[in-house]
Amino acid sequence: MILKIKELFNTENSHFFTSAVKRCKMDDYQYREREFIFTGNANIYETGEDGGPVVKYADCQYTDRMTMRLPKNRERFSGRVVVEIVNSTANFDIDRVWAESYRYLMRQGDIFVGITSKPNVFAALKRFDEERYGELTWPNPSDEPVPQNDVPPLTTGPQDQETGYIWDILTDIPAFLKSNEESNPLKEWGVKYVYLTGWSQSCSYITRFVTSFEKPDNHAYDGYLSTGGVRSLSTPLNRYESTKPVDSYQKRLNMSPAPVIELNTESEAGDEYGFEGYSARRIDSDDPAFRYRYMDIAGGCHDAVDTCMAYNSFDEDILKAMGGVGGGPPGNSFCMNDYHKYFAFHVALRNLYLWCEKGMPPKKYERMRQDAKGRILKDAFGNSIGGLRTPMIDYPVCTYYNWSERTDPATGEMTINALAGREENFSPEFLQELYTDLKHYREFARADAERLAADGQLIPEDVEDAVETAVKRAAAAGLK
Length: 480
Known about the structure:
The chain has 480 residues and is α/β, with parallel strands linked by helices.
């Protein structure tokens, strides 16, 4: 239960961590940001004999962070709230789904809410601004030491913090945002639909939440968009379970009364690098007990330029939060993959809205073609066959890879980075042979974009952007 909520305001000496106002041109969309600290009570669960959650500690109090991006004018509000389980893997908050979908969300008039999802990021937030974020805490009700094993748990945070608050937080948020509670900042907005989304590690949280906490006749969210799912990650109910073997039911969905769309890039779709995406995906279903669609993004990879580097570049806020530790591309031997995934995110969101609000199930999209071992099959240009597409991959000017090489700083040996992809441009001479010149290339790209829109692989509002993106990419590769 959410007990109280306090708004944090920007001042000369304190501001919103990694604000999106400038980087997403929010003023152009007449959007603004708000930020809150909220306190509540939550149960800490453990896995019971039947695999379901059992209360281990009841009514533990926590304090967490909520970010909000919403129209300046309430009349523009669509009635939808999209809640993101903010990704914690880098030890600071990364709202990756927002970074991929903000154009569509703001065009629609949707409200975005980001929920800090793990206590391992608290140190960075407090280092950035202790006065602003000093109250954040998910206290561990147990003083037992966390057992160790050969595979340490991913980003759990310090011993005195418990990860298991997230489940009741996720349960309480949609009801709170739809409520008439005086403390609800959206009380007067008339919220009709609340959706849950997440990227990478947060996708695994969605799987466990739907499997363990959703009820067939009373589901918390109206729908789910689960993206970039690294299925090899564990999804424990509490930090002490993170050292236990992960059962298959924690990695894949087996039911969902609310519609779920899973959207993966080439990095997560295969089983080549241990992410187990090929094994975890399900058959598309319209069964009332399991409404499910799966979609692949051909050409895309987990960490790409437009969101990993351009959006979440190591700016002053992140440098301060991380103690001055910066970063560059997560590899050292490549031109980083710059395939724009946001077109696919727009398609997935539009499909999810129509499914949940209008009762219109999406079409069943062609998946990327893979062999029996989950390896993605390639065409003559070295690019993937099938999946959601744009003119950038239908009329390629390069080969898009979902992996790269990097040097191990400890050993000096070259290793595979399976999260950050790379590109290899075709020669200008080959591009000229393929497309003649930019004028003809633009004609090809436009015809393709219009075909893809008619097939539901692009939303109509994105046709012009898709064409210009492809043409700009071709020009950069040397086509004149």
